[in-house]
Amino acid sequence: MSIIIFLAVLFVLVLVHEWGHYITAKLTGMRVDEFGIGFPPKLFGIKKGETEYTINALPLGGFVKIYGEDSDAANDSGDFARSFTGRSKWAQALVLVAGVSMNVIFAWILFSGAFMWGIDRAVDEVGASESARLIITEVLADGPAGAAKVPPGVTITAVSRNEETLTPLTPSAFSEFVSRDTSVPVQIAYTKDDDLFLTTIIPEKGVIEANPDRPAVGVALALVDTVQYGFFTALKEGLVHTYESTIAISVGIFDLIYDAAVGTADFTQVAGPVGIVGLVGEASAHGFSALLMFTAFISLNLAVINLLPFPALDGGRLLFVGIEAVTRRPMPVRATQIMNTVGFFILIALMVVVTWNDIAKLI
Which tens digits make up the pLDDT trace of 236-267? Predict the structure, then answer.
């Protein structure tokens, strides 16, 4: 099921990105010869008007083939005015940026949809509803809970000691409950992936560095509730989340590029297709809004990566257009074709390396 969801997410994101190129090219008067999902070899296609819509064998992306974009054939045709090179540099740049822009706009829509559907957020104990859940956000590795192998991210469903049961389940009540005695163990029931677990932990002193005399089990807690927003509030929150996420993703990617340049990059922390399949499965297991949020993050990642000034990416093509605008003469077609081809194979090689790391993690 995770693979099916991943392919569906990839299909939608590619469709959105390429539709941005496609519709902008049409609006600026360019001739679009092919709208492709996946990379060749072609499996099948349908031609409507002057554009052929194709499904291709390699489901790693998609493309829009605009007349005259990758060759000088348009120079020998009476249709030169409708070619990519025959339009203004502003029109060319607009077409190249349109795909990235659509990914950002789509992420905003997805974030907003998630906020309207309802997302899990930490809430104050006073304003929490009855459906709020007590979540373990962090576990101290050398604390009692760490020794008991309690994982972070689980939901506490019950806490008891002898015949006494803790109610209500809040961070402050939990802290007070476990700090009463270091001689009597505490039973904690929690759920993980819909499975129920029960563990027994004896609180210890010295766990809290700031308060070593207070008994504790070594966990950080948060009260989490599902919060829904109205339409306009969701749009605002979605826009803020899109902006903040784009900044965070950009910083992360540029840090990775810098680390790679100085030879300190850790590519084992980068997820490829196999890793993303697992992440999609985890997101979908947490509900529809979590899947929307995750898809939005992937969409923003695609946007930022595509803007990098690297051949075969939109950013690389945009760089070529900028060079032509400054020099006021076209770049050699053969040179741009070679650079784009080399860039494409480098990207494929990186994808293979990352995928290998994904597989190695599973072995």
Answer: 999 999 999 999 989 888 887 777 777 776 65
**CA-closest candidate to residue 180, choices 167, 161, 199:** 161
Are 202 and 180 in contact by the 8 Å Cβ rule? The answer is: no
Catalytic residue among 18, 34, 69, 237: 18
CA 263 vs CA 257, 272, 312, 315, 354: distances in Å: 10, 20, 24, 24, 16
Going along the chain from its start, the domains and CATH numbers come out as 2-118+230-362 (no CATH), 121-227 (2.30.42.10)
203 upstream amide cis, omega within 30 of 0: no
Beta strands in 12-104 (DSSP E): 32-48, 51-66
Rounded Cα gap, residues 133 and 221, in angstroms: 10
Q: Is the pLDDT of residue 108 over 90?
A: yes
pLDDT digits (tens, 9 = 90+) for 208-217: 888 888 889 8
Indicate the pTM of the whole model.
Answer: 0.78
Alpha helices in the chain, H assignment, sequence order: 2-27, 89-117, 144-147, 171-178, 231-261, 273-285, 288-306, 314-327, 333-362
Rg (CA), the chain: 26
Active site residue 130: no
pLDDT tens per residue across span 290-349: 889 989 998 998 899 889 888 888 888 899 889 888 988 888 877 887 888 887 787 777
Cα–Cα distance for residue pair 192/150, rounded to 1 Å:
10
Check if the beta carbon of residue 252 is closer than 8 Å to that of residue 148: no
- Cβ–Cβ under 8 Å, residues 95 and 26: no
Cα dihedral across residues 143, 148, 152, 153: positive or negative: negative
